[in-house]
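Sample intake sheet
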Amino acid sequence: MNTENKNYTVSPDPEIISGGMGVRISCWVLARIVSMMGGLGVVSGTALEIVYPRLLQDGDPGGNVRRAFTELARRHPALAAPVWELFDKYYIEGGRAPGTPYKPVSPCRLTRIENFRPGPDSFWELPREMQVLVLAANFAEVWLAKEGHDKPVGINFLRKVERPLPWALYGAMLAGAAYVLVGAGSPDEMPFMIEQLSRHAPAAMSFKVYGSRSDSGCFYAAVRPDTLLGGAAPVLEAPKFLAIVSSFGLAEALAGNPATRPYGFVVEGSEAGGHSAAPAKMRFDGAGQPVLVYTDQDKADIGAIAGLGRPFWLAGSYASRERLKEAKALGAAGIQFGTLAALSGQSGMAPALRSKVLKLLASGNLKVANVMASPTGFPFKVAQVPGTISEERVYKARERRCDIGLLQVNYLTPEGELGYRCSAEPVDAFVAKGGRVQNTAGKVCLCNALLAAAGLPQLRPGGYEEPPIVTLGENLESARELLAKLPPGQEAYTIGKALLFLRGAA
């Protein structure tokens, strides 16, 4: 399908984009300010179906969730009853009592849709309640970021977090997301999904199932808008899709096919925070563990990407006025910045944790390591912060568990059903499900740790609190420079100051 004639508004692209970081680090508060100041504010769409029930259990400070859900119910009356049922299920007036754990949210599990389409392929969907929760949470995050202004707002998804993604995308589009950014895997199916959902047509995204036979067809997670909205709805303005890539090869493959061609690219270098691509040539230590060493071979060919004729932004160590100028000289539309935003006072990072990180940064003692901690198999940047899971003693003290499951992979059980496993779950359970024991070494439960970093840690029996993890980019110089400019007694800078810094005005 040719995706060149999308029904999005032709408008100037932003010069500066904020990163869609972590779980709620790129929250709506931060994104709203970035957009209102002329950049593109991007919210993180990761785990919002866990974040929003926890916000409700904390009493919905400021009434933000209630306000956003009210707007969703007003626009789409068919969703009103299930949305308010979810609100009532999780909302606690005044918030949880001290020491009370969060009520768990059921992991995203798929059930087969019978008689969806003829052929060998199978189509699956989330349970109805989870469909509504994922949709409503992503709608709310985008709508809150857009509230009170008319500037564009974007949302970032991880392709690896695949089971909720179709419903998350639809919820963000219903709220009017102007840009959708997707990385951590090839996002080749996104243009067609966006085109379908803009017309409220069914859309499906493939997911991998380990142990399935090549002749048994493909597996798809399918969102059916008519079953959610209950009838016809006005055509949506399609968001501009930006594929996050780290190589010319992937960018060329996506751009070369009208069915997969994105509006543009975010070209991410290996220095960027969070997940990143592995080196082209992997090296291993004496224990057989990977050693992540990047060379010039791993750098994207920016000139070749510019030659593809699509807008692109450079990310990873580009958070300075000088590097912004350099990026534009190379043909880029601008830059994306993450670490500078993550450490600002308006990010979703827990305030006490941010204070600890900023003190380490100011003293020159903050280090960031690139390690194979993520269950996804992608390298992951981890800031070395005392009291977080980056410390060996904290990591070893935590009991392995997998009760959120966003990074689980799918496998086929002996009975022919879908099963789910994660290399960060208890080792015996992982191996019993067909996993390889060597894949469990050093793996971290990012779901629980990233929620803790956003100030939403789960409490366990005996008072144990899930420890956080902090992910930042390797280049900390811009954040350190901005900190040094603060007046005496001021500990943190604002996201507004960070934008002025990038524009050379601070």
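Comment: The CA atoms of residues 48 and 416 lie 30 Å apart. The longest strand covers residues 153-158.
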